[in-house]
Specification:
single chain; mainly alpha; 3 domains; 20 helices; 67% helix; elongated; ARM-like; Transportin-1; transport
């Protein structure tokens, strides 16, 4: 029944009485967004993560992502995480379903919805009851993509209000505010920095270090979105940003640590060579190398760490040289181990399991980052290793995505 809400709401719009039906649907979705919120959550950063709460993670090749974004003019849209951010993957309740439906309605009818929505938002956003206020913030985020043009006149008032909501005493209000602000980050970056970007960046970074794990997750994800939008506009604030993200290593547990890797990798992609300063390198690299040394070769947490290091190596360029050789040799070892396991499985499938080829792909992608960032400096390492033989074996494998490291070697 819950899943039928968006279907019937959109089906109703195609009746002859479309305008009235549309208004009824919007009101219904807004009301449903207020429902099913079951209390606030306490500070829980000291409570260990349960393994079942951590979503399975799969590596996505850097070259595949770049190729996809170039062909489509944009990257895949992952910014609806606030609608689906509960701990359980199966917890698709009426509230979240209604928020998703509101997102769809906004994308279909755009500014036509605002005469109905704005009065509802004014009533809910400033409500004394925190549950209703939280639902208004969620609804505001849900309509961001579809109704952005019509919402712009209201944002000079709403963005400062939302930034203040990042300090709300209720953790769920803080968490959903992070997501909603990320949905309007493109507008924020386009405005005078002192008015919006700097206050938002400052408060989001405070929430990155929040005492509640859900708020940490939402803030880290929102900050990654802000990094993508702001790019080199963040360069003047890099010291402060890095100090905060590095401090998060000492606070974060397993689940949010994976998100922290993504935020750091996105920062490196966004600011590029501006990260190549001794002070920044001395801040950033020790915790990353510490994690690198702790993780075993068969640990899938290597995926996000190696993805992060790939972006960092490309950005740091020659600044990554002190770390290059051990990183290079481990990547080569990962490729070799995967290929050997593949051969063993092919020859004796009953005795040996098939390898997870993502270990090889993520290692090759990091080698690609080293090649891109260090250019000629990596040639000595290539000559003194068996990487060429391993790459020849890789090219015999029908992998769906060739890596840029293979291309770099051939050119």
């Amino acid at each position: 029944m819950v899943l039928a809400v968006p279907y019937f709401s959109l089906r109703e719009e195609r009746t002859n009485d479309g305008k009235c039906a549309r208004e009824r649907s919007v009101r219904m979705m807004a009301i449903r967004v207020e429902e099913s919120l079951e209390g606030d959550v306490e500070d829980d950063e000291m409570i260990p993560d349960r393994e079942e709460d951590i979503r399975p993670r799969f590596h996505k090749s850097r070259t595949h992502t770049i190729k996809h974004s170039e062909e489509n003019g944009e990257e895949e849209d992952d910014d609806d995480d606030g609608i689906d951010d509960d701990n359980s993957l199966s917890d698709w309740n009426l509230r979240k379903c209604s928020a998703a439906a509101l997102d769809v309605l906004a994308n279909v009818f755009r500014e036509e919805l605002l005469p109905v929505l704005v009065p509802i938002l004014k009533e809910t956003l400033f409500h004394q009851e925190w549950e209703i206020k939280e639902s208004g913030i969620l609804a505001l985020g849900a309509i961001a993509e579809g109704c952005m043009t019509g919402m712009i006149p209201h944002l000079t008032e709403l963005i400062p209000y939302l930034i203040n909501c990042l300090s709300d005493k209720k953790a769920l209000v803080r968490a959903i505010t992070c997501w909603t602000l990320s949905r309007y980050s493109h507008w924020v970056v386009s405005q005078p920095h002192d008015n919006y970007l700097k206050p938002l960046m400052t408060e989001l970074l405070k929430r990155v270090l929040d005492g509640n794990k859900r708020v940490q997750e939402a803030a880290c994800s929102a900050f990654a979105t802000l990094e993508e939008e702001a790019c080199t506009e963040l360069v003047p604030y890099l010291g402060f940003i890095l100090e905060t993200l590095v401090f998060a290593f000492s606070k974060y547990q397993h689940k949010n640590l994976l998100i922290l890797y993504d935020a750091i990798g996105t920062l490196a992609d966004s600011v590029g060579h501006h990260l190549n300063k001794p002070d920044y390198i001395n801040l950033l690299m020790p915790p990353l190398i510490q994690k690198w040394n702790i993780l075993k070769d068969e640990d899938k947490d290597l995926f996000p760490l190696l993805e992060c290091l790939s972006s960092v190596a490309t950005a740091l360029q020659s600044g990554f040289l002190p770390y290059c050789e051990p990183v290079y040799r481990r990547c080569v070892s990962l490729v070799e181990q995967t290929l050997n396991q593949h051969i063993a499985n092919t020859q004796n499938p009953e005795q040996f399991e098939a390898p997870d080829k993502d270990f090889m792909i993520v290692a090759l992608d990091l080698l690609s980052g080293l090649a891109e960032g260090l250019d000629g400096h990596i040639e000595k390492l290539v000559i003194n290793s068996n990487i060429m033989q391993l790459l020849y074996q890789c090219m015999q494998d029908p992998m769906p995505e060739p890596t840029s490291f293979l291309y770099w070697v051939r050119t």
